[in-house]
Amino acid sequence: MSDLYSTAALHRMARYDAKTEIWKSLGDLSSLDLFGTQLVLAPYVHSGIMLSETLGIPETERLSCEALYDLYDSGRGFLNPQLAKEDIYQSKVYMVVKIGSEVDVDDPRYGGEPLKVGDWVLTLQENTRALSLYTPGAKQSRVLKAIGVDYTGWPCKFCYAADVYGRVTDPDMVA
To answer: Of 5, 8, 11, 97, which is most buried with the most CB atoms under 10 A?
Structure first.
């Protein structure tokens, strides 16, 4: 499969409430103190379910996590776990889950809006380093399980705040 096809295919996957899925899986991060200008980021992982006419889901619709789970369980639709799994390693869109103590969240480079936990941000995977967190309350994500990733919590990454290039309101805007 070509890179161009793979990127286009990501834009055709069923969309879901990824923020809720990530927060439910991560558990309690209150005991994690982050020093310096580092961020902890959670990669956006596509659902793995390719949209098709038979699914009857408009491309613009964002499913709740429960509706996505129902879709997984129904067996309707074509599941492409390899494309979705690649997001863990190659994602360019991440949700900010922790901000270091020395990050100036009000820096004008963030477009006049403070950087905050829960923002979807853009960076390149080469600016990040993998981090495995196992916190109190961490759970297995059904999204990750559906695409064949046996992981409790959510795979995260370290990144310097200076290496964040932008913010998006919709993680599906970028593939």
So the answer is: 97
- The DSSP call for residue 14 is P
Helix (H, G, I), strand (E, B) or coil at 118: coil
**Residue pLDDT, tens place only, 73-110:** 988 888 889 989 999 999 999 999 999 999 999 999 99
For residues 48 and 53, what is the distance between their CA atoms, to the nearest angstrom? 16
Taking the complete model, does pTM exceed 0.85, yes or no? yes
**Count of Cβ atoms closer than 10 Å to residue 99 Cβ:** 19
Domains of the chain with bracketed CATH: 3-173 (2.30.33.40)
- What the block records as the tokens of 33 is 């103190």
Q: Which residue has the higher pLDDT, 160 or 75?
A: 160
Question: How many CB atoms are closer than 10 A to CB 14?
Answer: 23
Report d(CA 84, CA 125) in Å as an integer. Answer: 15
